[in-house]
């Protein structure tokens, strides 16, 4: 018991300290996440400007299905776009969803991004008509959507659950993009990007300590 006037019980002090550390960590994570995602989108814009100004077609380095040389496009395609309108359509959701995906740490974000790029790109390479070259960051957009929504289910942190529910409510309509409803749009990239995001959420989830066995 504490009889001294004005004294704060240790549990209160420790709880307050944990909350302050958590808030500070989240603020630092938000700053780093925002900077990284802005740089990512800025790089895409710089590449598209270079593609517009310089001779040659950068889009030729996208994903060409069932072509071994086309496998390099798995890693290059997210940074290439058909035109500025295509890039503009991807930029805002990429900024929002990428920022939310990166909130839990840049290391986890980079691992998750690599998983999404691999799953989305290989899925496109295996299922797309070889006559077409696939480019665009929409696989990442769908992947980050899947990551943020699934993270709330796997990590079970209140903030992640709230963010996941909010993202699902705000962006639920993009789910229709995984269906082959529009010619010239890679629904395969959307579908496998979404699956890659869910897989990434599972792989980088918070590991819970094992319960002691008796």
UniProtKB/TrEMBL annotation:
Keyword Protease belongs to the record: yes
Pfam families to which the protein is assigned, alphabetical: Rhomboid
GO biological process: proteolysis
Single GO MF descriptor: serine-type endopeptidase activity
Any one annotated GO CC term: membrane
Primary location recorded for the protein, binned into one broad class: membrane
Recorded topology in the membrane: Multi-pass membrane protein
Keyword Ribonucleoprotein: no
Any coiled-coil regions, as ranges: none
Subcellular location: Membrane
Keywords: Hydrolase, Membrane, Protease, Transmembrane, Transmembrane helix
Transmembrane stretches, start-end: 23-47, 84-102, 109-126, 132-154, 161-179, 185-204
InterPro entries assigned: Peptidase_S54_rhomboid_dom (IPR022764), Rhomboid-like_sf (IPR035952)
Stretches assigned to the Peptidase S54 rhomboid domain: 72-206
Family the UniProt entry places it in: Belongs to the peptidase S54 family.
PANTHER family per record: RHOMBOID PROTEIN 2 (PTHR43066:SF1), RHOMBOID-RELATED PROTEIN (PTHR43066)
UniProt-recorded name of the protein: Rhomboid family intramembrane serine protease
Lineage of the organism: Bacteria, Bacillati, Actinomycetota, Actinomycetes, Streptosporangiales
